[in-house]
Amino acid sequence: DQQVKQNSPSLSVQEGRISILNCDYTNSMFDYFLWYKKYPAEGPTFLISISSIKDKNEDGRFTVFLNKSAKHLSLHIVPSQPGDSAVYFCAASGSVGTSYGKLTFGQGTILTVHP
Amino acid sequence: GAVVSQHPSRVICKSGTSVKIECRSLDFQATTMFWYRQFPKKSLMLMATSNEGSKATYEQGVEKDKFLINHASLTLSTLTVTSAHPEDSSFYICSANQGNYGYTFGSGTRLTVV
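YS: structure for the whole thing
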């Protein structure tokens, strides 16, 4: 039962353009969402997060949008840079019940930004 | 910022032996740490929640006798893969919770069982 899904295994974008990474979730108990960037053989690095009380959070080139009714979030990177090439994971957590404090990850999307 | 140190980064062991992986929070105390496992081209799967001073909580399908977790202090959690087999080969990652959803991840351990 995949509670967090990233349906696009890969995304290729030209440098300078916008990268949009998508994530869907099914567990209505999730109320906090995070995006991580990961290189091979390294641990994930935190990028940006959003609480369910918001629908948008922005940090520099990274913006996360949350659509609670659709149980969908997206990460926008603009402008994209070659150094952004990595695997991006979305993760979700809940503040109550069995999902409290635990992160559930999506499958990841490989982003490649071409010069 | 907060740092979580994970050691070793790579380990190769023979089938049937045990391997210990350490996870340390360097500049903060972590009452809770999490252990994840990542299969090739797959998501990170939570294995267990490590609680300082008490027993770990394992996710469904994770063998607690196979993956021993000890959280003896507020800065150290260890994962021991006992009687390792080739199917245990994977990338193991720990994370520590600083509270208010501040998760910091270790750099991971690549375990290869031959």
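YS: worth flagging: The radius of gyration of chain B is 13 Å.
IM: good catch. Also The CA atoms of residues 21 and 79 of chain B lie 5 Å apart.
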